Amino acid sequence: MTARTAVFALGTLVLVAPRLDAQQDNGGRINFVFVLRPKPGMAHLLEAGLKKHQAWHAAQKDARSITISTVVAGDGVGEYRVVYPNLRWEDQDQASSITPADFADVNINVAPSLESTSSLVSVRMDSLSRIPAGEPARNMNWVTYTYVKAGKGPEYTNYLRRLRDAHDKANSPYRYFVLQVIIGGDTPAFALVRPGDKWTDFPPAQNRNVLVQAYGEFEADRLLNVLDDVVRKTSSFVTVRRPDLSYTPAAR
Question: How far apart are CA 38 and CA 78, in angstroms?
Fold first, then answer.
């Protein structure tokens, strides 16, 4: 996506969200995500523009939080991820009155520094996660996207459910939450997000060990073999939060 269409994406995706409540998981909240890649040598200008744009949100008393992080390792190093986290569809409807002006400010302050952008909407899958939705955000996230073959979503979510149960039973330190992409991106896709404050907060998963402890070797290997049948590809990256570029409503 070009910088010209980036403005369209940043403006209109925040304006209109189709009603996909049936796809939500136990009332899971929605994340709107924009992935920004600056033009070569213009990261500092993009950051300056993002700061101006967040000041605009503050002046509008926008009730939504906006979290910005930078990708520091893995796929997409150097990109900026702009996330409107933990929203309800109603939050988007209530913000629609400021969207035309939002569009105009992005066009002025952000778009000139962009080489490309992409966007997606994901829903938090509480029943598959090991971290409660209300837990405070951490400084870093290790994110793994799994792209599933068409029609194989139920098999993959069953694997994730059994995996979560096994880690819970073992009381393992491997903590994460799961998102399902519902708009945009290369779907079907799921993201497993592991928050931490430093690199040593990311212990090895030990998935086979906990599956064997919970279900025995035969069932553990059967579950792991499911991945060979349902997964098309994966990608992963680590992000670091940028509080200096982010926006938190005054009331929060």
Answer: 8
pLDDT of residue 18: 40
- Which run of H or E residues covers position 122? strand 114-124
Distance CA(171)–CA(209), nearest Å, equals: 12
Of the candidate CATH numbers 2.102.10.10, 3.30.70.100, 3.30.365.10, 3.40.50.300, the domain formed by 3-122 belongs to 3.30.70.100
| DSSP letters spanning 185-235 | SSSSEEEEEEEESSGGG-----HHHHHHHHH-HHHHHHHHHHHHHHEEEEE
Q: Mean pLDDT, 10 residues at a time, over the chain (252 residues)?
A: 47 42 55 96 97 95 95 97 93 89 94 95 95 90 97 96 96 95 93 96 92 96 95 97 94 62
Is there a contact between 168 and 134 (Cβ–Cβ < 8 Å)?
no
Is there a contact between 20 and 182 (Cβ–Cβ < 8 Å)? Answer: yes
Domain 126-237, CATH class in plain words: alpha beta
| Token pair belonging to 92 | 């988007």
Query: What phi and psi values does residue 83 have, to the nearest 5 degrees?
Result: -125, 125
3-state helix, strand, coil split of the chain in percent (to 5) is: 40, 30, 30
Tokens of 184: 């945009």
Give the integer Cα–Cα distance in Å for 167 and 235: 22
The number of CA neighbours under 13 Å toward the Cβ of 73 is 8
Cβ atoms within 10 Å, residue 22: 5
Q: Which residues, in sequence order, are bridge partners of residue 180?
A: 123, 190
Report how far Cα 220 is from the mean position of its chain's Cα atoms: 28
| Listed residue (105, 95, 80) closest to 14, CA to CA | 95
